[in-house]
Amino acid sequence: MSAACTTGVPAPAATSAPTGPAAVAAPAGARDVGVQLFQWTWDAIAAECTDHLGPAGYGWVLTSPPQEHVLGSQWWTAYQPVSYRLESRLGTRAQLSAMVAACHAAGVEVLADAVVNHMTGKDARGTGWAGSPYSHYDYPGIWSDAAGDFHHCGVGPADDISSYKDAFQVQSCELVNLADLATGTGRVQDGIAAYLTDLLSLGVDGFRIDAAKHLPAEDLAAIVARLPAGTRIVSEVIRGTGEPVTPEQYTAIGDVLEFGWGKDVTGMVRGGSLRLAAGLGTGSTYLPSDKAWIFVENHDTERSRSTLGYRDGADYVLANVLMLATDYGRPIVYSGYAFTDRDAGPVQDAAGKVLDAQCAAPVGPDVTYTDGEWVCQHRWTAIEGMVGWRDAVGDDPVGDRWEDGDAFALSRGTRGLVVLNGGDVEVAAQVPTTLSDGSYCDVVAGPAVDGRCAGDPVAVRDGVADVRVAPHTAVALHVGAPAGA
Ligand code: ARE
């Protein structure tokens, strides 16, 4: 974990008591788990920080893009900026500011999705969400073709990227017709830095740089150099076979999203080959751990169905358990809404404002979600339990690994043990562990209530855990959750 990843916001006082006298406080350096609350309004994120994210131990939240955008009901209108006014269908500037304050009070940092590579992809004139007029290459008072603010690569009739194997096209042509900013000019760099600085002035802690692959790394570096030192930056650079623009080119600027992890864990879990989990994050096609942010899915892979998602139920949970258990990279839990149509936006009112997210009770892998319903993966019992597990193990490295058929286990120092079963039959096993002797609650099954574990307590004797793991589930023990308290 890079130093820049350590949360700078003080953790709130624990709201739930540890489960027993032997419970051990979370070590320093914990709370590194983030959650992408896709298309959540600012008001809903504020409430979620206070009521759930902070108490559950999430360290930070990634929002959807906050700037003024084109009109339309689809989710992706957010990725077509019209101006940098902080007025969107997710909320106003005042609501955004209040959300950041509420999250910080709950010990949760806020990262905003920064769309800085391009403006709109609309060929016709229009008006944005906040009333700003625009045309494809003219954004009054901000950018214009006359000022040289846009690239026109001259490749093909529409200036669109036609080959990702050509770095010039990737960084100077248009991504799906989106007007491509000439980020090499000082004028454009100043304008983008001013937008990001405005967000920082509201307390935002850092940024996901959308479509970073499409900005030359030196242009992005010049923009980031205009921001205060320590601003958290994570670049979206998807590794593509044989492509000249690579994630490694962006690691000097900050951290980078590692798309390979979600892809590989998907194949592994779908194939029932959890014993291969030890190899996740190793090898030359992975970013170094201290630069990598990992996720099972994001809003794009959820729609392309290229990774596991909420519809995959138990397998999706297993992948999330692995992500939260590993010491490779920095994990991001994804939380969105149910959909059938790839383009469908979140539920909106008649004026187009997104309605505040509501998490129905119960939420989880066995619930059937109807279109538009908030899936609230971050509140699923197993995922929330593993966020607490990760906070308890802190920076302890992966120690012992164990495998048997479809089952896989790993320890994190002397603080935690996870045993996963990717197969179709129950696993009953004696798993070596460095946890001290005692009886532990399985936090994947849920939090202890009145001192009673939600699942079967697990005994550890002489460095061996005696576990039973149902098919396609996991058992997770940590020092902060002893049984029988
Ligand atoms: C929409 C319409 C288009 C229309 C356009 C302009 O769908 O038909 O032409 O508007 O009017 C999102 C949506 C897009 C949407 C866009 C703008 O996904 O559908 O277009 O918003 O509203 C590449 C990029 C990567 C990018 C992915 C999607 O490298 O950066 O494509 N991901 C981010 C976001 C997206 C967002 C954008 C960028 C744009 O996460 O949500 O788009 O802001 C290989 C390559 C990858 C490539 C991938 C897919 O794997 O290696 O680099 O990713 O193929 O092409």
The secondary structure category is alpha/beta
Task: Flag low-confidence runs.
Answer: 1-22
Q: According to CATH, what is the class of the largest domain?
A: Alpha Beta
Going by CATH, what is the homologous superfamily of the largest domain?
Glycosidases
What's the overall average pLDDT, rounded? 93
Helix fraction by DSSP (H/I, runs of at least 4): 10-25%
The unique ligands bound to this protein are:
acarbose derived pentasaccharide
CATH names the topology of the largest domain as TIM Barrel
**Total domain modules:** 2
* Strand content bin: 15-25%
What is the tally of helical segments?
Answer: 9
Rg value:
23 Å
Q: Summarize the biggest pleated sheet.
A: 8 strands, parallel, barrel
Number of strands: 20
Q: Going across the biggest sheet, name each strand in turn.
A: 1-2-3-8-9-10-11-12
Query: What overall form do the CA principal axes indicate?
Result: globular
How far the N terminus sits from the C terminus, by CA atoms, comes to: 33 Å
CATH architecture term of the largest domain = Alpha-Beta Barrel
- List the secondary-structure elements in sequence, H or E: EHEHEEEEEHHEHEEHEHHEHEEEEEEEE
